[in-house]
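Deviation from plan, reported transparently: iron/sulfur cluster complex.
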Amino acid sequence: MLEKNKVLLEVKNIVKYYPILGGVFLKEVGAVQAVDDVSISIIEGETLGLVGESGCGKTTLGRAILRLEEPTSGEVLFEGEDILKYDQQQIRSLRKKMQIIFQDPFSSLNPRKTAGSIIAEPLIIHGVKSRNERNDRVQKLLEVVGLKKEHMKRYPHMFSGGQRQRIGVARALALNPKLIVCDEAVSALDVSIQAQVLNLLNDLQSEFGLTYLFISHDLHVVEHISDRVAVMYLGKIVEAAGSEELYKKPFHPYTQALLSASPMPDPKSKKKRIILKGDVPSPINPPSGCRFHPRCLFAKDICSQQEPETKEILTGHQVACHFAGEVGL
Ligand code: SF4
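Because the crystal trials were delayed, the predicted structure below was used instead.
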C-alpha cells in the first residue's frame, strides 16, 4: 500500500557540467552545461514526464539521478537520503530500488545472451544463487510483460522491437524496484507498438506501485503516461505542471511552441503553429538571462539580462519566465 503524497525522489539544484580541455597542458577551457540548477520531485506511485528537444539535458538528468553520471553539484534525495553521498557498496544496493529502461531495445540487450539470461543477470549480480529460483523468477517476469516461458531460450534478434522492449522492462523489474527511469523507452518503436508498451507500463505501475521518470522528446507520448510534466530547455526546467493542465494551458512560450509544433490527432484542428527563430544555442556558451530569449517571440530587454525566477502561477504549476501569464498565446 502506497503512502499518499510521499515524496520518493527529490532532486535539488542538480548541476552537470562536462569540462572541455584544451591547449598543450589540457587545461579546462570551458564546459558543456548539460544540466544547470535543476530541482524536481516525484511522488511515490506517480509518473513525472520530462520533455524537451534532443540535447536539452533530459537524459543527462536521468542518468545523474541514477548516478550513472556523477553530478557536478546538487543533491539527490531518494527516500529522504542523499544518494550522492553513497559509497560504491551503497550504490550497488540502491540499484535494486532504481532501474532504467533504455531507448533502443536492440542495442541495450546483449546479442550473445538469451532473453532468460539477460533478465536473470540482475538477479545473479544481487545474489540470487539458486538457479531454480532464478528460473522461476524469470518465467514470472516474462509472463508479467506478456511474453512466454519458451521465449527464455531465444536471442534478442529473434524478437520484434516491441518484444525486445518487453525484455528490457522485465529486466528492469527483476529486482522489484521502486523507481524506473524510462529513457525514451518507446521512441524507437512503431506507433502501434508504442501504445502496447505504454499500456504495459501503466498496468505494471498499478500492479506494483511503481514510480516512473518518463523521459521523451515526444509530447503526446508523455501526455499519455504522465501525471505531471516538466519541460526542459538547454539544461533548465522552464515549466512544470499537472499533465492535463500543462497541455490545456501552457504558460511558457517554449512549451507553447513545442505543443504547437507537435502533430494533432484531429486533422480539423485550427491550432496555430509557432515557428521558433534560429536553432537551439550551444550548451557550451548558453545565452545570458533567460536561455530561451534569442528564440522567444515575446523577449524584452530584461530577458537577456536577468535569469527569470521560477514562479508558481497556479497551484502546482511553475513557470520560469519574467512575463508568465502576460505574454504568449
Ligand atoms: Fe521569453 Fe523573456 Fe519569458 Fe524568456 S523570460 S520565455 S525570453 S518572455
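Residues 191-208 form the longest helix (18 residues). We consider this an acceptable substitute for the interim report.
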